[in-house]
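User: Structure please.
Assistant: Input sequence and predicted structure:
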Amino acid sequence: MNKKAVEFLKKAGINGTTISLELNSQEIREICTPASEMVVYGYAPMMISAGCVKKKVHRTL
């Protein structure tokens, strides 16, 4: 999520956004609007996967 993404969503008619957990304080200040929301408490899993990602990705070298 960045400033361009917020602008794109606004043009699409979506005013409210949820601030991403990965943003730092400077990035939050740049994209935060009165219609923004943020998850401030709770469990946030880092990755949800049905299996090992390395086994599922086929690399062609």
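The helical segments are 3-11, 25-31, 53-56.
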